[in-house]
Design a protein that fits this description.
Keywords: Amino-acid transport, ATP-binding, Nucleotide-binding, Transport
Low-confidence stretches: 1-6, 269-273
Radius of gyration: 20 Å
Bound molecules: adenosine-5'-triphosphate
CATH class of the largest domain: Alpha Beta
Order of helices and strands: EEEHEEHEHHHHHEHEHEEHHH
GO molecular function: ATP binding; ATP hydrolysis activity; L-isoleucine transmembrane transporter activity; L-phenylalanine transmembrane transporter activity; L-valine transmembrane transporter activity
Shape: globular
Mean pLDDT: 86
CATH topology of the largest domain: Rossmann fold
CATH architecture of the largest domain: 3-Layer(aba) Sandwich
Strand order of the largest sheet: 6-7-8-3-9-10
InterPro entries: AAA+_ATPase, ABC_AA/LPS_Transport, ABC_transporter-like_ATP-bd, BCA_ABC_TP_C, P-loop_NTPase
Family: Belongs to the ABC transporter superfamily.
Protein name: ABC transporter ATP-binding protein
Length: 292
């Protein structure tokens, strides 16, 4: 997909550069992501994937470039590079998860989903007055928050564990809870940083189903950083490949599988075993096809 193909994508990244001293973690990167699509960002270790997320979510101020988010029901684009992280979540409605799970492990599963709705509840409480007086408007919002939490508990199959401490959940369930918690903020763009890391094959399949379900039902855009190619190739609509901070390919899963620049970037790894297994298999198949 080219950027020109859709004049108003959900997210437009233009000429993004992020420098750390002399190191260009991201170097003049441009791509676009659409609503109701899963856009994967892949690339070898250190390619700059997480730095892209950190720029999008306000953890880093980009050295240069423009990050424009245009929500489907809004005429006013948000220029993310000019916003603070807190406002990026609250106003631009960008949510993210992290490579290392960051749940409130001492809180219950349900509480994790309610805390995520803190902003909406604070607004409904008129910053405490309506809450203190227990006014109807506040109680309605509170009930809605609980309903939303229950909806997501059911979606991720954790209704029976609602009262468990989040830290006591099995690893795969914690990963799903993180996604549900992000969804409780009503994002228009959900950024997932290696959600399949540490999952077994069955859990990876469940993750695929959950993400496809979110795309279909919530109609939001998903940005996905992932090394697990069984996830990337099966559920992505569009893949952007980075190497050394620059975009080396951009296209559909089939285009990316057969792109020589992608194959070269991954073959740059020291040993064949360093490659994600599916990429290594893809590369072997591509080489066999070429030899025929
Ligand atoms: N805060 C920072 N200070 C200095 N260098 C940084 C910082 N953050 C990232 N980098 C560097 O930027 C480059 C890109 O890092 P990044 O974490 O974005 O890569 P990645 O593609 O997400 O890697 P991985 O797949 O291993 O998670 C790396 O060389 C990294 O060391």
């Amino acid at each position: 997909m080219t950027i020109a193909a859709n004049p108003t994508p959900l997210l437009r990244v233009e000429h993004l550069t992020m420098r750390f001293g002399g190191l260009f973690a991201i170097n003049d990167l441009s791509f676009a992501a659409k609503q109701q699509e899963i856009t994967a960002i892949i690339g070898p270790n250190g390619a700059g994937k997480t730095t892209v997320f950190n720029c999008l979510t306000g953890f880093y101020k980009p050295s240069s470039g423009r990050l424009t988010l245009t929500a489907p029901d809004s005429d006013t684009p948000h220029l993310l590079e000019r916003m603070d992280g807190f406002c990026i979540t609250k106003d631009a409605k960008v949510a993210r998860t992290f490579q290392n799970i960051r749940l409130f492990s001492g809180m219950s599963v349900l509480e994790n989903l309610l805390v995520a709705q803190h902003n909406a509840l604070m607004r409904a409480s008129v910053y405490s007055l309506a809450g203190l007086l227990n006014l109807k408007s506040y109680r309605v919002k509170e009930r809605q928050s609980i309903e939303k939490a229950k909806y997501w508990l059911e979606k991720i199959g954790l209704t029976a564990q609602a009262d468990w401490s989040a830290g006591n959940l099995p690893y795969g369930s914690q990963r799903r809870l993180e996604i549900a918690r992000a969804m409780c903020t009503d994002p228009v763009l959900l950024c997932l940083d290696e959600p399949a890391a540490g999952l077994n094959p069955k859990e990876s399949l469940e993750l695929n189903d959950l993400l496809l379900d979110i795309r279909r039902e919530q109609r939001i855009g998903i940005l996905l950083i992932e090394h697990d190619m069984s996830v990337v190739m099966n559920i992505s609509d569009h893949i952007v490949v980075l190497d050394h901070g620059a975009r080396i390919a951009d296209g559909s899963p089939i285009e990316i599988r057969n792109d020589p620049a992608v194959i070269r970037a991954y073959l740059g790894a020291d040993e064949d075993e360093d490659l994600p297994q599916e990429i290594a298999t893809d590369i072997r198949h591509a080489a066999q096809r070429e030899a025929r």
